[in-house]
Amino acid sequence: MNTFEEIYAEYYPGMFRVAKKMIGNPDGVPDVLQDVFTDFFYKIEHGHEIRNPKSWLYRVTFNKCIDNLRKQKHFQPIGSAEDISTESDSAENQDLKMAIEKTLVKLKPRDRMLAVLYSEGLSYKEMAEATGIRLASVGKLLSRTMEKIEKEFKDQGYELY
Amino acid sequence: MSCIKKGTIQKYIDGECTLSETVQIERHLADCKKCSVNVEYQRKLASGLRKALSLLSQESKGIPIINVPDKTARTRLLTVRRLAYILAAACIILFVVIISQKKEPENQAEIIMIEPGFATEFDANQPVSDQQMIMTIIDSEGKKTEYFE
Q1: pLDDT at position B54, please?
Q2: Quick one: pLDDT at residue B16?
Q3: What domain count does chain B have?
Q4: Which of A56, B23, B60, B71 has the CB geometry, 3.0–4.6 Å to A16, for a possible disulfide?
Q5: Structural domain count of chain A
Q6: Candidate from B5, B49, B66 with C-beta closest to A119
Q7: What is the pLDDT of residues A88-119, one digit of tens each?
Q8: B35 neighbors B3 (Cβ within 8 angstroms)
């Protein structure tokens, strides 16, 4: 089995991207991941067996992101997609990023996580374990989520493909 | 075979179907133009979603050092918390004891013994309620007080 440090180094970058897409605010992501890995550390310390660390870590990230989103509701947002855009981004790309963020915000957290994990290339089994959805329902929920995203995109004047 | 459901098409696109499911779907697709169009549509949606979300991808600026609290710090924290609970409980108990002591009237002599009995010889053939009872209370100074009923 991999050590804590190895697991941390292996999964941190992917979890960072997922948490960033989930909560939108890049400044809050390190705190979320610190909480996730602290929980993971104590689980291991207390002798709990985690058979699939990847799924476990993504599930806890999902839960912590939901907590973070609830906390964010109490504060006035001061940043948006513009904050993450770089100078090299074209104006069209910036608009597109804002449209994607707006679309994701309108989805239910579970659907949003599903779309985000799908974009990260996780298997159906891993997505099911991370979101608590039945494995048999992943395909159906994914296709519904994609239709919702496409509709929302169209409403904003964009095409998903 | 009836037309393929959207969820199954999604599974097929993502390579999550079993071999037998894949064979069945491909046989159906060879004959059904409607389902072939749906497969193509969902394939484009999936690819579009991945492409769109990849725009939001922001890599972390390196992997930060994790600050996991060490065991001694955690144990110390638990001990301090436990001590705080014990102290709070002790304060409450002390407060209750002080309050209960204050409520006791000062002029009342302490009762040290109560002796129940009957004023006359107990007659087992008579109901108890018809026989006069006597209650002897002896206080701390040895003074006896009798109560009749």
Answers
A1: 87
A2: 95
A3: 2
A4: B60
A5: 1
A6: B49
A7: 567 777 888 888 888 998 999 999 999 999 99
A8: yes
